[in-house]
Design a protein that fits this description.
This protein is an all-alpha fold. Helix content is 61%, strand content 0%. The protein is built from 4 helices and no strands.
């Protein structure tokens, strides 16, 4: 949603929010700190959560689950690639592995 400009449609009165959007967009494009190193403005995950909830309500449980999986697929794919990139990674506790990825 963010890379397609959804954040531009958020009605807000916080003067700092446009700057936070710009900084987050730079973090995503630069990708210096990796998947877990970003700090999105709180309103972004709130909007995504609300949209997934709306799909569940409007189209039912199965379509809602399909929408949720579509949204998290880039994250789960990245986690799968990096988690099993080495044999040693399989023996780490998942939280420890995520910590080391950051």
């Amino acid at each position: 949603g963010f890379m397609k400009g959804l954040h531009r449609l958020i009605d807000h009165r916080d003067a700092k929010l446009p700057g936070r959007f710009s900084a987050f967009e730079f973090e995503l494009k630069d990708n210096v700190r990796g998947l877990w190193g970003t700090d999105p403005p709180k309103v972004i995950p709130d909007v995504v959560e609300a949209l997934i909830g709306a799909v569940h309500i409007d189209l039912g449980f199965n379509e809602g689950q399909r929408a949720a999986l579509h949204v998290i697929k880039p994250m789960t794919s990245t986690i799968s690639r990096t988690t099993f990139a080495s044999i040693d990674a399989r023996f780490l506790h998942p939280k420890q592995h995520l910590f080391e990825m950051a």
